[in-house]
Amino acid sequence: MAACVIASGSVTVEGPKLLRARRGLLLFSLLLLVLLAAASQPVWAHAILMESTPQKNSSVKGPDVPITLRFNVRIDGSRSRFHLVAPDGSVRTLPPVKQSAPDTLQSQLSGLQPGAYKLQWQVLASDGHISRGEIPFTVN
Fold first, then answer.
1. N or C, which end of the chain has less CB nearby within 10 Å?
2. Could you read off the pLDDT of 46-66 as tens digits, one per residue?
């Protein structure tokens, strides 16, 4: 049984083998597209902060405050940064200490006076992307 196809105003007749071949090619193309999309998902994933100490908008006791940030992926601790913005607007760079886990960064704040602070972080994720964020907190 032949099929009729209208293209550019003219009518052509295609055989069943050609129709099956076109359907097969279309199905293969769709399957390939789905597989490529599924395989590329990890490339789109950036480091997302899962939990932190101190928590966002929390109040903590000073003058010493431990810092722990845990992410959803492995991060490069040697290329990650912490900055502390003090109540007076001054900025202090904090060195991360050795990673306790591949998805965790830690540091230690000391000598903090009461007031509102912001911990700014920047991490390099295992996917090669840089993620940034900020955690405001208050020292009592």
1. N
2. 899 999 999 999 999 999 999
